[in-house]
Amino acid sequence: MIIPAMRYEDPDAAVAWLAEAFGFTEHNIHRDDAGKVTHAELRAGSDEASDMIMVSGPREAGWLGGAAADPLASPICIYLVVDDPQAHFERAKAAGATIVMDLQHMDYGSHEYAARDPEGNLWSFGTYRP
Q1: How far apart are CA 78 and CA 56, in angstroms?
Q2: What is the pTM for the complete model shown?
């Protein structure tokens, strides 16, 4: 199992937006004394077997040997399999996702699209199941 761990400048806003735009559900949220998200586990579906991502806030440079996240410079794209890419695409557009590849049929059989979240992270959603 691989669980992407993503850092956001505003993890509270990220958790809310990822639920609204991409349909993630809260699984486990840890907050500090002020009520701010320090660590969140979000599921891509509603059951215990669903894929998951983890969300946290920014870390100081050098944490885990790296620099602060710069999503627009990252070569990483998170890909999630969805059953209805058309509905998912419409939901993401309605929530203000920046669409970087419109919904299309790919030569390898998938129907998919790609979008950036408000902090620039690249996401792709489609029917391809390797």
Answers
A1: 16
A2: 0.86
